[in-house]
Structures are given as C-alpha cells and as structure tokens.
Design brief:
Layout lengths: L3 H5 L3 H10 L21 E5 L4 H13 L4 E2 L8 E7 L10 H10 L3 E11 L8 H20 L5 E7 L8 H11 L10 E4 L18 E5 L4 H12 L3 E6 L4 H10 L3 E4 L7 H13 L2 E6 L14 H24 L3 E10 L3 H4 L5 H23 L3 E7 L5 H4 L3 H9 L9 H12 L10 E4 L8
Parallel strand pairs: 1-2, 1-3, 3-4, 4-5, 5-6, 7-8, 7-10, 8-9, 10-11, 11-12, 12-13
Helix pairs in contact: 7-15, 9-10, 10-12
Bound molecules: 1,4-dihydronicotinamide adenine dinucleotide.
C-alpha cells in the first residue's frame, strides 16, 4: 500500500511546507534497475594503520568493478560510498583516525550513499584489547547508520578469522551493500563465516541454471521473491494454497515458471514438492520458506486455534519440508535454503507471542541446520523483515501502522522487493560463506538489535 506521508513530503507544495516546518522527510529510496552501474560516483576507501594490505585488496577489487576509488578524503568531492577497512585493527585507540577521516567527509556523501565497514568478530579475539576494538566497530556502525540521512545506509561485513577480504562472500556482501539492492537494509552486520562460495560469471544473473521453489508466492513478499529470483536467472516453482490459485497462476505465468497449489501444512506437502521438481526439473537448488500468517492477540485472549495455526504454517511446515528435502537426493550441489523470520522474532512484539514464537523458532532452526548444510556444500539462512508494505500489514490499525512504519532510521516501511533482493543475494553463489545467519531488512528498526 502507498505511504501518503512519504509522498506528501517529497512532492510539490507540501514538500516546501514540510521543509519550512522542519518535519521529518523520509527519502524516496533508490532501488535497483537491471543494467545500472554499481555506483554513480567515487568511493572512498579508508583503513586503520594495521589494515593497509586488506584495504589495498578491497580497493583493487573495486577498481576491477570499474568503480572510481579514492584513498584519501577530498572535501571537494561528492562520494557515493565509503568503505572502512578495520579487519586488522588492534586496539580501540586505533579506531579514531579512520573514523574521524570518515566523519570529516560525511557532509560530502551523496544522497542514497553507502557506508560499509569490514571488521572481525570479537568472539575470535585472543585478548580483551582486541575484542574491545572489534566490538567497538559494531557500536560505531550501528550509531553511524542512525546519523545518516537522505536514504543513505550504513552496514558492516564481519569476516571470521581466516576469511580474507576478497573471499567470494565478502565481495558478494560488499557489492550487495554498496548497491541499490540493499535500499532497506540498514545498521546491519553481515557475518561471513567461511571462504565457501564463488563469484558469478554474470553479476546480473547469478542464479542462471538454478531451480527455485518459493512458498506463499501468490502475493506480497512471496510474489516479489519469485519475480526477483527469475530476474536473476532462476527457474521458478511457485507454491500457494488452492484458494489463491488464480493469483498464483498469474505469478507463475509472469515468471515463466510452474504453479503448485499446496497447503504447506499438509502431511504430504514435502512429498508433493519433491514429486513436482523431480518430474519437471530433476533437482532443486533454492528453497524459500516464505508462506506465513499472523493471528495477533494478547496472550491473555489467545485461543488455541490462533496459536496452533501460526506455529503450524510459520515454523512446523518449514521444519518438516526442510527435513524431508535433506533426507532426499533431490537437492543440487550447493543448495540454498532461506526462511522468512521477522524482527518480532528478535525483539518481540505486543500481541504476537504466537507469531514471535514461530519466527524466533525459524532463527533457531537455521542456526541448528547450518552445519548439515555446510556438509552438503550449501547454506541455510533467515531474513527478518521489519515493517514491509503488504496486504498483511495493511490490516494493522491506522495509528499502530503509522508508528510501526516510522520507527526506523529510514522513517518508512520497506517494500516486498527489499526483502526479495536480500533473499536473492543469500540464494546466490556469492553468498556461499554466509550460513546460519539472520539478516534483517528493517531500515534499522529502533527495536531489538
Ligand atoms: P501475505 O499475507 O501478503 O502473503 C502470504 C502468502 O502466504 C499468501 O499468498 C498466503 O496465501 C500464503 N500462505 C499462507 N498460508 C499458507 C499455507 N498454509 N500454505 C501455502 N501458502 C500459504 O504476507 P507477506 O506480508 O507477503 O509475508 C510473507 C512472509 O514474510 C511471511 O512469512 C511473513 O510472516 C513474513 N514477514 C512479513 C512482514 C511484513 O511486514 N509484511 C514482516 C516480517 C515478516
């Protein structure tokens, strides 16, 4: 649904009025268009004293992507992005110089700009000083993202010790976070845990030759996922309940895929998916567990059917279907499984004990299955959307909806395409080193981490 306030403060007379009154003016986010350049202007690469080699490697890669790379801040330049390489930082005191350099050029960051940090996890540090320096980057990034304006975002990539700065998933995450594909991803730290994965031959079609199943694909986020995976080269099988059959057929036609009418909670759901993909494609590479429902009530008023149906669709079905797929021989060489979680499953939400149980359950499920997927050369991850403009959120009462929509650093709801872009990234070969993670697509929601 459309966001009337966002439209008013960005157009005509009401834009001028909003400026004069000093009202918050969320920017209309710039989203990806196939064929557009990765960035529209130069990128500044800065680093702490110990991370010079890593910064050279990152700058070299950006040059290979035809990006205009600068190594020193020039206040007369307008930069489209800043990459802050802090992978080898040794003490909290060493963070000041590179960050103050970034601060000095921030006024020259173009609208829709990007700040991306590269760092390492505190959990891998051998001393308290090193852990403090590494964890310090998280604090910087999360705070800086809250200071950026005009549709700009700040995100980080956290490389496990032993993972090099040009590992496939570091490059994949860097490209994703610099691009307009990550328009509604803000204040997040994406963990790269291994050097698995590969860079695609064609960055515009990384899913060429893959077969993908998307559940709940008749509308909303699921339909956007199907369209985005098809755009990136995948062959689609779209799944939804028989009652949504017409809309499902419409999506299947649009993406030149096939439709499978199915309730994901049915006992034979996994068997029917397997039968369908075996008969038509011989195998399955990407599975997106997107089907989901809300049945909100305060726990004091919760009826068993509201509790049970939400748990059944949102977490029990993905558990059973994934288990059956892992037990089968149908999965391809580098399978990708991605589940829809929610920020409610991380931070909790009033009236959503059932929904939050299911979505937190999904986060637990992907963590538990990550090692099994590593053994098969694959990954399993979750995406946790915040407030996304869909039929599901259109049902939220006006006042609650307006508050939920504004309570993030970008001061607006995301769109289904924003969730779909993150899922397409996690489904791609360049995300092979990201496993067991939950990536939030929430504009840096003010609640939760
Ligand atoms: P939606 O209600 O617009 O679409 C959900 C789709 O799933 C519908 O087409 C529905 O028919 C299908 N579905 C429901 N039960 C099914 C079943 N038993 N078997 C097969 N298909 C079934 O929802 P929306 O907003 O597109 O959400 C998609 C996913 O994203 C859900 O898992 C939701 O929990 C999650 N999400 C959405 C957020 C939002 O702000 N819209 C925020 C956080 C998470």
């Amino acid at each position: 649904m459309s966001d009337t306030y966002l439209n008013l403060v960005n157009n005509g007379f009401t834009k001028t009025l909003a400026k004069r009154l000093g009202l918050p003016r969320p920017a209309v986010l710039r989203r990806h268009r196939p064929g557009e350049p990765l960035l529209r202007g130069p990128v500044l690469v800065v680093h702490d004293a110990a991370s010079d080699e890593a910064a050279d490697a990152v700058a070299g890669q950006l040059l290979e992507w035809d990006v205009d790379v600068h190594r020193h801040a020039d206040t007369s330049e307008q930069f489209s992005a800043v990459v802050v390489v802090l992978t080898e930082v040794t003490s909290p005191a060493a963070l000041g110089a590179p960050l103050l350099e970034v601060g000095a050029m921030l006024r020259g960051l173009a609208p829709h700009g990007r700040v991306v940090t590269l760092s390492r996890p505190a959990s891998g540090a051998s001393t308290a000083t090193l852990a403090a320096a590494r964890q310090g980057v998280d604090g910087i990034l999360r705070s800086l993202a809250k200071e950026l304006r005009a549709g700009s975002t700040g995100n980080g990539i956290v490389l496990a010790d032993g993972v090099g700065p040009t590992a496939p998933s570091v490059l994949g995450a860097l490209r994703f976070l610099l691009s307009t594909r990550s328009a509604f991803v803000d204040g997040q730290l994406v963990q790269v845990t291994s050097e698995a994965g590969s860079v695609p031959q064609d960055w515009e079609r990384p899913l060429d030759g893959t077969v993908a199943v998307v559940t709940g694909a008749a509308r909303g986020i699921g339909a956007a996922i199907a369209r985005t995976l098809a755009r990136d080269g995948a062959t689609l099988v779209v799944v939804d309940v028989p009652a949504a059959g017409d809309a499902l057929a419409g999506v299947a036609n649009e993406v030149h895929g096939s439709a499978l009418q199915l309730d994901v909670t049915a006992d034979d759901a996994a068997a029917r998916i397997l039968e369908h993909v075996r008969a038509r494609h011989g195998r399955l590479d990407v599975v997106i567990h997107n089907a989901g429902i809300l049945r909100d009530k305060l726990l004091v008023n919760m009826k068993p059917e509201r509790w049970d149906s939400v748990l059944a669709v949102n977490v029990t079905a993905p558990l059973q279907i994934t288990e059956a797929l892992l037990d089968s021989d149908a999965l391809g060489q580098a399978p990708r499984i991605i589940c829809l979680a929610s920020t409610s499953g991380i931070a909790g939400n009033r009236g959503q004990t059932n929904y939050a149980a299911s979505k937190a359950g999904v986060i637990g499920m992907v963590q538990a299955w990550a090692p099994a997927l590593t053994e098969r050369g694959g990954t399993i991850n979750a995406v946790a959307p915040g407030f996304i403009e869909t039929d599901m959120t259109a049902k939220i009462p006006f006042a609650t909806r307006e508050v939920a929509r504004r309570l993030n650093s970008l001061q607006q709801g995301g769109r289904p395409i924003d969730v779909a872009e993150t899922i397409a990234f996690l489904a791609s070969p360049q995300a092979g080193g990201i496993n067991g993670e939950t990536v939030r697509v929430c504009g840096q929601n003010m609640v939760g981490r």
